[in-house]
Amino acid sequence: MKHELNDLMSLNRPLIKRISQILFALLLLLCAFFLARITWQIYELLFTDNQSINISSNTLSSSKNMTISASRLESATLVNQLLLFGKATESADTPEPMVPAFVPKTDLALTLTGLLTSNDPSASMAIIQHQNKQKSYFVGDKIIGQATIVKIDAQGVIINEGGKQTRLSYSDSSKTISSTKESLKELNEPSTITADFKDELLASPEKLFDYIAISPVKEDNQLLGYRINPGKDAQMFTELGFMPGDLAVEINGVDLKDEIQSLALLSELPEMTELSINVERDGQIYTINLSLNQ
């Protein structure tokens, strides 16, 4: 009986081998079918343009609607259900810190010299001077000790000092001046420059930036002008007619709100011997005239 069974297996071995090959081929065809279906769904998602429908996207700041085809929407749903690319982790928006209506000014020895504000709070930047050193800060950065910046906007910087919120603004380091016609007339007269200072600038015009610190001021990516603050010689800075926190908006008739023109002018500034600078101070426009001509 055993001998007969072995003979039967020997006779059917080619048939069994053939059946195995057929089953393997069917399995390959089935895999190819599902792979082709997935590929086609992705192709439709990327390239097919069928009947379009409008979907309003509330995640965009623009008021325009995002247009997507019905076939792409269905394909995207199918691909998403397959989880080919994994499941995205949902992230919650970071809420803006609560700031009271009145915030007292900080007592910290800080000077605000520049601001770059943006609709994205994390992209806003403040340039702050401490111990005669300027540094750029973002929301969350520590300035002195545990004093941390919690908000940056066009009005200045909100600082958390041990649970107490304080503000730092340009006006905190600027002197209050009279906006009478008399003070305006004085500013319009050429500033008195000592002979030694004039000779120094004529010999090395780039030394002007040793006495004047200039930093751009932007709001929502729009250039507002250039903040002017004293450099290494605060006395000479005031003798030139400037005050800490002045916002230069025009030099020799060139509008400093135009980025291309202002950058071109600033590169030529050390070579100029006559300067007529319009600055914004406490909401008023003043003109400061400087002359290096001998």
From TrEMBL:
The chain crosses the membrane at residues 21-43. This is Type II secretion system protein C (GspC). The keyword Hydrolase does not apply. Gene3D superfamilies: 2.30.30.830, 2.30.42.10. GO terms for biological process: protein secretion by the type II secretion system. It comes from Thorsellia anophelis DSM 18579. Residues 26-169 form the Type II secretion system protein GspC N-terminal domain. The lineage of its organism: Bacteria, Pseudomonadati, Pseudomonadota, Gammaproteobacteria, Enterobacterales. It is found in: Cell inner membrane. GO terms for cellular component: plasma membrane; type II protein secretion system complex. Belongs to the GSP C family. SUPFAM superfamilies: PDZ domain-like. It comes from the Bacteria. Pfam families: T2SSC. The keyword Cell inner membrane applies. Keywords: Cell inner membrane, Cell membrane, Membrane, Protein transport, Transmembrane, Transmembrane helix, Transport.
